Amino acid sequence: MKKYEAVLILNPNLSSKVEEFKAEFNQLLTDNSFKASKLEDIGRRQLAYSINNHNKGHYLLMNLEGDPSKLIEIETKIKYNESIIRHIILAVKDHSSEESILMAESKNKKSEVTEIKKEVVKTSPKEEKGNE
Prior knowledge:
By secondary structure, the chain is α+β, with helices and mostly antiparallel strands. The protein has four helices and four strands.
């Protein structure tokens, strides 16, 4: 079995249906004797350039293992799936056990936003008026 890494960028309007997409994609993989050993749901991110009039995309990263002869069929199905606006599948020697840089960045951004929200809640409008 050969090892692959895949990155899928989904239509951002379908972010609420990502769980359904993951289940359907996992079924496509199992139907073609592939196995997803790791899946990272990065979430919505700003794209470097507009793709099909979308400025954001929902990122999914995964480690795959499977038969190279079945990869063409999987890529064909991906190509005609309207939910996916970009994809890439790369052959790799070994899978990394660490989380991806994108996942680490998204976690850091989420924690920063949470901290900012906590600070905003702590300072109420009454306190600000009293300080003036």
